[in-house]
Amino acid sequence: MSGELKGKKIVLGVTGGISAYKACELSRMIIKEGAQVKVVMTNNAKKFVSSLTFQYLTGNKVADDMYDLEESGISHIQLADENDLIVICPATANFISKYANGIADNLLLNVLLASKSQIILCPAMNVNMYENNLIQDNIKKLIKNGIHIVEPDSGALACGWIGKGRLANLETIMEIIKKKVQNKSLKKENVLITAGATREYMDPVRFISNPSTGVMGYCIAEEFQSKGAKINIVAGYNEVNFDKFDSYKEITTAEEMRNEISKNLNKYSLVIKTAAVGDYRFSTRLDNKVKKSDDVFRVELEKNIDVLKYIGENKKENQIIVGFAAETQNVVENAKKKINSKNLDLIVANDISKKNSGFGQSSNFSFLIDSSGNIDELGLIDKNDLAKKLASKIEKMRQNF
Ligand code: CTP
């Protein structure tokens, strides 16, 4: 037992699906990490697993009836308030839809609606139910309200269908639980993260851009959110879903990115600029599609606004500014120049000439370089781990700011 959840109190809500039996194992895994688990079951859940099983596994009486609770000396408000986290595993289509619509016709729904805790919900159901627009709309509604949805896995389902709907892997759920209850060391930070790729249009159908997918920005946003920071995203084209963060604005061009950022720049305590911004744009943008004519077609490009430089020039006291650098040669040297020219506190320099590093990859070959010249050579590192390294570097830097 590594005790990563030592002293934490977790409410485990179990609803009536075939994967309810996996919640037994999950309760054991949470307890093994040192947390206390209180299980709340719906009546349908009890058709799949007995409450006695959970009672023996957790050492706590299972709560299942709103009106019996008094006897056990706890109220649904206590269950809602006195925990570090609520995990619903599995969450059925019926349960998700009731919760998303504020219905409270069982104990577990009452607990959730009365709670200000962090909530993780792990859907598990038939693929067609999961993909049904009504369910998807309800899931989106829950995400908008800050509920963390652990997407189901794909594979053979108990109902005979093959597709997405199988309860996520328990190890994945455990990782998310650990992240949620870890120390909120960055809770004072109001962070702006830029991500994705800008697009500069020549005419209504053609543009210059780059292969950025927004994954690096997403990993950082998740990590900093799990440490309590408020997360604001301004992103160009991307292939991730930023809806669960505190604010999300989508922009197209570098100029739009600068304009959006300038609205609230003074309010951010920390700016992390992962976005891949186009350095050049077309000198003229045409309103109509250019027709094919001569064999050679020449275009004129002009220098784009450098958004990060603008942020550095307007840096306010106590604001930490982190830039990224995509380099193919003289990585450290070039990145250091960017620290000075853009007035940065820290830069993440990525060697994109290395295999599996850079745009669209799950890892980067990185160096963390601060304005005092300290260099952490991280080598090839998973983007999630890079986000963790960045968070601990910021924690240390904040102590000296
Ligand atoms: N950046 C920006 N606006 C630009 C270009 C870059 O805000 N027009 C930001 C990026 O978001 C990144 C940092 O500046 O955080 C460095 O980007 P990079 O592409 O590595 O460098 P450039 O400044 O564009 O310089 P070069 O292309 O010459 O390496």
Q: Give me the side-by-side strand order of the main sheet.
A: 12-11-8-13-16-17-18-19
Q: CATH superfamily of the largest domain, called what?
A: CoaB-like
Q: Under the CATH scheme, which architecture of the largest domain would be assigned?
A: 3-Layer(aba) Sandwich
Main sheet, how many strands, which sense, barrel? 8 strands, mixed
How does the overall form come out from the CA principal axes? globular
Q: Please name the CATH topology of the largest domain.
A: Rossmann fold
How much helicity do the residues have?
25-40%
Beta strand %? 15-25%
What is the number of helical segments per DSSP (H or I, 4+ residues)? 14
Rounded to an integer in angstroms, the radius of gyration calculated over CA atoms is 24 Å
The whole-number mean of residue pLDDT values reads 95
Please give a handful of descriptors for the protein shown:
401 residues; alpha/beta; Rossmann fold; 2 domains; eight-stranded mixed β-sheet; five-stranded parallel β-sheet; globular; binds cytidine-5'-triphosphate
Provide an overview of this structure.
The protein is of the alpha/beta class. It has two domains: about 170 residues, Flavin prenyltransferase-like (Rossmann fold), CATH 3.40.50.1950; about 210 residues, CoaB-like (Rossmann fold, 3-Layer(aba) Sandwich). The protein is about 35% helix and about 25% strand. It contains 14 helices and 19 strands. It has an eight-stranded mixed β-sheet with strand order 12-11-8-13-16-17-18-19, with helices on both faces. The chain has a five-stranded parallel β-sheet with strand order 2-1-3-4-5, sandwiched between helices. Strands 6-7 form a two-stranded antiparallel sheet. Helix 1 runs parallel beside helix 3, helix 5 packs across helix 8 and helix 10 crosses helix 14. The longest helix is centred in the C-terminal third of the chain and has 18 residues. The two termini are about 35 Å apart. Bound molecules: cytidine-5'-triphosphate (CTP). Cytidine-5'-triphosphate binds next to helix 12 and strand 16. The site of cytidine-5'-triphosphate has 14 residues, from helix 12 and strand 16.
